Amino acid sequence: MLAAAAASASAVCAAAVPSISGPSGLGPAPASFDLVSRVYVPYGLSATDLAFGMGAAEQIIYDATERYAYAVSEQGVLNVVDYADAAAPVVVTSLAVDLRGAVATDVEICPERGLLLVSVSGEVLNIRTARVGRRTDAGRVLAFESVRRSAPRTPKPLWQVQVGALPDMISPNRDCSLLAVANEGEGVYGGVHSSTGTGGVATGAGLVDPDGSVSLIHLPKQGPPSVSEVRLDALAPSDEHPN
């Protein structure tokens, strides 16, 4: 049986699909999912921080070795879900990490190195006032220790590096010696968010549209990480409509 996890708004669901079998080891594609359990993930640090539209589970990742799932919130929180019993998962709020309002965009894990990786945009969110900073600014990738079942504790910060604008996906290679980070470079008209509390209104004139890029984070077995960048603006001088 294959276990899978899915997120929708503030929910993380576990589902099971039929085994894939046959003479060649491959059978027909699974036709359905069976719901095993559901757990609601808070958008903040408190178990009562539950609300629709807060991006509580913007992205999730599952550590099959330690049986923990991680969910990052658009409100700047990394939550840990204990899947020791897949039928009764538990949000472990005592292990949550405060990202200090950084808008998280992706989460990835390298279990063989005990690394938990979170990408955040250049934008910072304060839900009591407004967004500050700009998503057109450079983003970051943050590294933490992943949770060990033998001695669970809050993920410890290890390092962080700067990447391109709006890093939206982290993809490690097989041995996690190299991380590819897709920087979306999403544009903003005016480029500056207002302080009205909506977080989505731009002021000023003109389009701020950073180039998309891929940041390559090199992770040696010893020593600090290093970053190189593959710029995509060389593929085309502009992505603007000719008219």
TrEMBL record:
The protein's name in its UniProt record: Uncharacterized protein
UniProt cross-references to InterPro entries, sorted A to Z: Mesenchyme-surface_protein, N2O_reductase_N
Source organism: Emiliania huxleyi (strain CCMP1516)
